[in-house]
Amino acid sequence: MRGLFDLLSPGENALYQLGMTGGYAWQQGWWWTVLTAIYLHGSILHIFFNVMWIRNLGPQVSDVYGPARAFVLFSVSGAAGFLVSNSLTLSPSIGASGSIFGLLAALIVYGRKRGGTAMTMQLWQWAAIMFAMGFFMSGVNNWAHAGGFAGGWVTAEAMRFSEKRESRGVQILALALLATTAFGFVLSFIKVTTVLMSR
Fold first, then answer.
1. 2-13 b/e with 16+ CB inside 10 Å = b?
2. Among the ranges given (60-64, 80-84, 116-120, 129-133), the one the predictor scored with the smallest mean pLDDT
3. Does the residue 12 lie in any domain?
4. CB atoms < 10 A from the CB of 24, how many?
């Protein structure tokens, strides 16, 4: 532990074994890590801050889009953020920040379409402050933040939100993303275990 922000930080081998993206994983073509890395965090504080934002934004997104669409938005945004990060930096990366920025973008899209100017302005301010803070904190993946925001925006624009029941197609997509993520954890564990045993 190097400081308070590193409290209970896992090691690099453990993170790769659980599905960290970028770095070695991306060089090996482990595409599923753009999903698994969303659920990995670097310390107790990392978990706390991300869960706090998910707790604030998740129920709102679920209310206006529906739970299946909200999960699709969360997953696609996180994956888009890591795709941008992996393409531009190849640095190892974890965390749900890209997904959180995607949820922010989805609420902004909803506010714009429904004419909620005050809400939209507040969300833009949150996004700007969070993005700016990333430049003053070490270890923050701003490319993933930007990619997650863009992914959330595009995905939300493609969705139809209403009070109507979510389509079976959206529900199947959400389940498919969940199953792919779960399978990705198994794949990462097997792949990294094989590499470590061969050393």
1. eeeeeeebeeee
2. 116-120
3. no
4. 14
